[in-house]
Amino acid sequence: MATHYADGMKSQENAGIDAVLIRRPKLSNLIADDLRRGIARERLKPGDRLPNERTLAARYGCAKGTVREALKALEVQGLVKMQTGPMGGAEIQPVSVEAATQQLRTYLHFLDLNFEQVYAVRRTVEVTLAESVIGRLSEDQLARLEANIEACEQARLRGDRVEARRAELDFHDILCEACENQLLVFICRFINGLLRDLVEFRSARYEHHDAFGRHNANSHRALVDAYRRGDREAVIALMGEHMHCAERFMRELDATFTSGFLG
Amino acid sequence: MATHYADGMKSQENAGIDAVLIRRPKLSNLIADDLRRGIARERLKPGDRLPNERTLAARYGCAKGTVREALKALEVQGLVKMQTGPMGGAEIQPVSVEAATQQLRTYLHFLDLNFEQVYAVRRTVEVTLAESVIGRLSEDQLARLEANIEACEQARLRGDRVEARRAELDFHDILCEACENQLLVFICRFINGLLRDLVEFRSARYEHHDAFGRHNANSHRALVDAYRRGDREAVIALMGEHMHCAERFMRELDATFTSGFLG
DNA sequence: CTAGATTTGTTCGTATGTATC
DNA sequence: TGATACATACGAACAAATCTA
User: Fold this and answer.
1) Domain B98-252 falls in which CATH fold?
2) CA angle B160–B219–A123, rounded 5-degree value
3) Beta-carbon contacts of residue A161 (< 8 Å; ≥ 6 apart)
């Protein structure tokens, strides 16, 4: 494949960069910065696409791999999403909760969080959430809550513990959909994500999982029932007790890790 | 150019991945996830280094460029810093709360948050925080709480409303210092930051500010007194009432977070 | 100060998977 | 079904930075 750009230009550009900057930053970072500025300058909106990698490499007079690293930086920041195929490339993304939570998760991952601490928060905010959606759940949402309970039961009967736990957390995410308070929703969803991560890497004995699964099914069923009746007192009491029991189970999870990561 | 790797092996690997996963995630993302987990699992501290690129490529059975993309993701997230030369490579960086909150704030910037919604959360988490630090406040921290109350009073008497509000929030940040639960601390500090940003841009009538300042001084004084006595019931009741009153005042500002804040 | 060793940074060529037409 | 366009990935080589002797 012929190089469409002139090698002489490459040298010129690099010489120029070297002359201006005392210590040359990584080329991929310079390109990433320029792309960010370009996106802002051109007022690119979600759905717009950047030029493809080959074009960008030609524009900046560098190799594909360098452009790829720059695009990777934008992708991690949630600014763009890469797609393959024709009309693929880097597509501008809307500001998403995903990017925000990802950073938070890695931050908290290093702060030795245990279940007790997570539940000290969850126990209160989930009750607040539960109360806030009383009378706001649509028939479709109620139906999906009931369908979720059924899905959890099936996962439990299959013996798929991790999937059962994850599906049970989906129940609470459905409640979030009916809540207007976006800050509360963010915190609840974020904590649900934390718990999803944690159950992935910790395991407990089967009896615990099975008992927990049955408890969750009962609690969730009673909650849906209380929501249908619009019974505020019952919703608050049920969610409070549900959180209390969930915390007790979670604390029984085995926290031992097997490693050998850095050999 | 001869391909030194066996085509058969590559196909086998890909077939395996395709069989398990509906849509194959990018290999560099899988590696990045694994590295993140590994860093947390091995409790790597700032200053520790990851294996070099060649070793990682060998471990994951992939090319160097793929490993580089994964490392780039960690670098963008502020988890590691790349360095050239001997003893170079990916060095673990201290996790900064700044990086985590920045993304979150730009996300919340697009949401229609109002005082009622913020206080629906703050009302509960501040009480949880208040309870969690009972018996854990050092004499130095108690002294600083008292000094803070005095500073707030002086700001109020000077008529410096914004400074008074900001200083009053410092009171709650001092409480955070004594709390072990880092998730709870993060949420409380983040909300305090939201409120600090807001008082910059909103002002109410003087009577409101003055009455609020006097209320805060009384509440904070009573709280410190209850902490010194180790009176759990009083702490919980006082902080609950304090939040209730604070919310009422803040709602008189009748402002939303959407306009102007976070410029 | 120089020379060598180590490790990231960058490039080029190539091959493969994947989405669109 | 095939052709096309694009990202994804591999591998070899060299350049640049940085530490040590």
Assistant:
1) Four Helix Bundle (Hemerythrin (Met), subunit A) (1.20.120)
2) 115
3) A203, A206, A209, A213
* B87: exposed, middle or buried (Cβ count in 10 Å: 0-12, 13-18, 19+): exposed
Mean pLDDT by 10 residues, chain B (263 residues): 33 37 82 93 93 97 98 96 95 90 87 88 98 98 98 93 92 97 96 86 73 95 98 98 93 57 42
For chain B, domain boundaries: 2-92, 98-252
Is B77–A73 a contact, with Cβ atoms under 8 angstroms apart? no
Tell me which protein residue sits closest to nucleotide C13, measuring alpha carbon to C1': A1
The pTM score is 0.80
Coil/strand/helix, residue B92: strand
CB within 8 Å: A100 and B103: yes
Q: What pLDDT, on the 0 to 100 scale, is given for residue B103?
A: 87
A144: its two tokens:
């999906």
Closest of A237, A234, A233 to residue A225, by C-alpha? A234
- Reported residue count of chain A is 263
Q: Which class would CATH give B2-92?
A: mainly alpha
- What is residue A114's DSSP assignment? -
Distance B81 CA to C12 C1' (A): 27
Residues of B in contact with A239 (CB under 8 A): none
Out of A91-100, A237-246, B108-117, B203-212, the most confident range is A237-246
Average pLDDT over residues A89-113: 88
- Write the pLDDT tens digit of every residue in A178-190: 999 999 999 999 9
pLDDT at A144 (0 to 100): 98
Burial code (b: 16+ CB inside 10 Å, e: under 16) for A175-210 equals bbebbebbbbbbbbbbbbbbbeebbeebebeeebbe
| Residue B221: predicted pLDDT | 98
Q: Check if B51 contacts A (Cβ < 8 Å).
A: yes
Q: What's the rounded Cα separation, in Å, for the pair B47 and B196?
A: 34
For chain D, which bases have at least one atom within 7 A of a protein Cβ?
4-13, 16-20
- How much is the pLDDT for B114? 85
Q: Exposed, middle or buried by CB within 10 Å (0-12, 13-18, 19+), for B65? A: middle
The integer distance in angstroms from the CA atom of B61 to the C1' atom of D14 is 23
Q: Determine the pLDDT at residue B27.
A: 97
For chain A, list the strands marked E by DSSP. Answer: 80-83, 89-92
The answer to whether B93 and A97 are in contact (CB under 8 A) is no
Residues 6+ apart with CB under 8 A from A54: A64
Q: Beta carbon of B126 within 7 Å of strand C?
A: no
CA dihedral B136, B138, B141, B142 (to 10 degrees): 90
Residue type, A72: K
Residues ≥6 apart with Cβ < 8 Å to A130 = A175, A223, A235, A236, A238, A239
Tens-place pLDDT, residues A42-80: 999 999 999 999 999 999 999 999 999 999 999 999 999
